[in-house]
Amino acid sequence: MFVPTAIPGLVCAYLFSETGEHEVLGDADIEMPLPAKGWLWLHLNLTDQRCGKWLADRLGLPPAVVTDFTEDGSRPFVMAQQGHMVGQITTFRRDFDADSTETTWCRFIVSERWLVTGRVRAVQVAESLRRELSRGLKPASPSAFFELLVEHFPDTLDTVLHRLTDELEGIEDDILSDEQKDERRRLMLVRREAAQLHRHMRAMRRALLTALRTVPALPSGISDSAARLSHLDQDYESLETRARFFHDEVDAKLAAETNRQLYILSALTSAFLPPSLVAGIFGMNVQWLPFAQGQHGFFIIMLMAGASSALVWLLLWWLNRR
């Protein structure tokens, strides 16, 4: 039976029957042993430092399993430890009531009678599984439920891939147009997000492939998730390659625009340099300066300055036609 005393760090708890029917538990402690048939899912907030002691005392988990579950890790892993499967997988953070593409960790312990998951920051996968349970999901065992936990990562990666691909195609349309937009900034955001997700994806795939070789009786769905991550790895690599190509296109477009503006500036400089020289020469206060005493000197000098500019423009036009 379940007695209403606090479980440290409890986020949610579900008791499942052998047919997959579930009962939502409140903030309650557990009187062991569990019912003869059925299993338990506990989701814990590991910022509560009492979680490890409670798991060891109330669920009777071995100290090594508790240590692997509660200690901070820097990379995903799945391993067998004293009759339990324990590890840490990559998932996505949940930001208040919205989903995020920022990655975080979800830790787990799987046995025949329970699945214990833990996190430091809120994760999307827990909320997603809770929604599926409310819609009638009936997991047959902790291992089957764990498969759904792992599948959430490639599912979300696939969704993000479609969004990034659509964004990249929109950037391509802007690059091919004559208008200057913020393609460079948008492209940098796409490349950064794709590179970060690709990095975590490769780490997760290595962890699952290692588990397939080393963990006995691993759920069959894990190999499917590893295969999906392998395909997504290729898709993300192709996406990053396209993004780099478009980045080069944007740089070339900006360089061409810069060259065009420099050409216009050079042409204007070249056109106004001869009149400046003419004005400088005839502005000198020296003896024998031509047109200084005539009535039409100013107009003659202006005509010479205009003629010199026209001569430069004709020269530039002739050079461009060659």
Key phrases:
single chain, 322 residues, alpha+beta, Beta Polymerase, domain 2, Methane Monooxygenase Hydroxylase, Chain G, domain 1, seven-stranded mixed β-sheet, two-stranded antiparallel ribbon, 56% helix, 18% strand
Written description of the protein model:
By secondary structure, the protein is α+β, with helices and mostly antiparallel strands. 56% of the residues lie in helices and 18% in strands. The protein is built from 7 helices and 9 strands. The protein has a 7-stranded mixed beta sheet. The chain has a two-stranded antiparallel sheet with strand order 1-4. The longest helix is centred in the C-terminal third of the chain and has 62 residues, at 221-282.
- Please give the alpha-carbon distance between the first and last residues: 94 Å
Strand content: 15-25%
The proportion of residues forming helix, as a percent range, comes to 55-70%
Regions with little confidence, pLDDT below 50 for 5+ residues: none
CATH superfamily of the domain at 1-140: CorA soluble domain-like
In a nutshell, what does this entry contain?
The protein is 56% helix and 18% strand. It is an alpha+beta fold.
Fold topology:
Layout: E1 2-3, E2 10-16, E3 22-25, E4 29-30, E5 39-45, H1 51-58, H2 63-70, E6 77-81, E7 84-95, E8 98-110, E9 114-119, H3 124-134, H4 142-176, H5 183-214, H6 221-282, H7 297-321
Helix pairs in contact: 1-2, 3-4, 4-5, 4-6, 5-6, 6-7
